[in-house]
Design a protein that fits this description.
Order of helices and strands: HEEEEHEEHE
CATH architecture: Roll
Radius of gyration: 15 Å
Strand order of the largest sheet: 2-1-5-6-7-4-3
Oligomer: single chain
Distance between the termini: 28 Å
Largest sheet: 7 strands, antiparallel
Number of domains: 1
Number of helices: 3
Helix content: 10-25%
């Protein structure tokens, strides 16, 4: 299940992913997120960028608290559709507010995003995503 080649590179280098969560009754929500990937799990901060609600009342946080099953998509778009690629990560998410895993997420996110150096993300929730399935797709994989 560990990605290799181009899919591992996309997961390491991409700056944004799209996180899909849903309520218990199946109402979906997809939001763009910044993330860090350590080769095993993904971390995303509920950071200080403007939000419509407080961190603990954000729909994605409430969704994960009630239904931890998520999907994360990291994609590479190109006008040359032969270069299209994406990786879908299905798994479970957990909201962390403190502890060693929370601190690890903060460290990895700050290494990847200099913007986080001026934000107090150590005081904010961190979403930890544990993959159960990783699905890479590339337009080059299919022959006409």
């Amino acid at each position: 299940m560990i990605p290799r080649g181009w899919s591992a590179e996309i997961l390491r280098k991409s700056r944004v992913a799209h996180l899909a969560t849903s309520t218990n009754d199946g109402l979906p929500l997809v939001v763009p997120v910044c993330y860090a990937y350590d080769g095993r799990v993904f971390y995303s901060s509920i950071d200080e960028k403007p939000k419509r609600s407080t961190p603990n009342k954000l729909r994605r946080v409430l969704n994960i608290s009630h239904n931890p099953r998520i999907s994360l998509v990291v994609d590479l778009y190109s006008e040359d559709w032969k270069k299209l690629r994406y990786v879908i990560i299905n798994g479970t998410a957990k909201i962390m507010r403190r502890g060693s895993e929370h601190s690890r997420g903060v460290l990895l996110l700050r290494r990847k995003y200099p913007q986080y150096l001026s934000m107090r993300i150590e005081h904010r929730p961190i979403v930890k995503i544990k993959p159960s399935k990783i699905i890479p797709w590339s337009a080059r994989s299919y022959k006409k």
